[in-house]
Amino acid sequence: MLIKLRDNLFLTIILIVASAAVYGVQFIIFQRGDETLFYLLQDLAFVPVQVLVVTLVINRFLSLSEKRKKIKKVNVIISTFFSETGTTLLYEIGKFNQENNALCEMLKITDLKKEKSLFGGKRTQNAYPYDFYADPAKLGDLALVMEGYKAPLLSMLENSNLLEHDSFTDMLWAVFHVADELKIRGPFGELDPSDIAHLSNDLRRAYEALVAEWIQYILYLKTEYPFLYVAALRKNPMQVREEEAA
Fold this sequence. Notes:
By secondary structure, the protein is mainly α. It has one domain (about 70-245). It has 8 helices and no strands. It has helices at about 1-30, 35-95, 100-105, 135-155, 165-185, 195-225, 225-235, 240-245. The protein starts with a helix and ends with a helix. Residues about 110-125 have low confidence and may be disordered.
């Protein structure tokens, strides 16, 4: 920091001396001190306008351009997450939602032409059916899946580009918390009702966050990358499950 400040001060002094030297040479050659002073003051009069243009217009444009680049990077990370991790997590954690088939019907995606039926219209997150029960018989399989995804989740949490996407970061923490909870719990067959209730709540929180981010991800693909949207339809984790519907 001190080195940067010293360099800036040195550059400032050089520029001021150079400017004074040019004005000195002009005065020596043309001997018109009043005109030199006049044009100097005239140039200084435009400095505030120049500062205004640079600060409010150019900097704003550069900031917007930088923000678009960051948003694009974040969307690439989100796309990678759902392609490699999120889709599987949605499917596996969804097994604990006793109303998951009803949820899948509400979020049903059929084809690109039925845009109005996408997600059954605009609904708030609270309108979706969630009824989670951490079934001990299923927790072992989920624990294995979650353990395999902890490393990718950690690497994403370390990505500085996600600092401006709070909801996605919160979702990653919620999912990571489930993985930690499953790791520290004892044999799942020996869980008491309070442990099951705690895990059920953790699973619901993670799943709600996953669904919310997945909806935004799908809508983004639909608008910006229709060809990727079509591919996402083939891997859609929000499918009615026959074994649960039976």
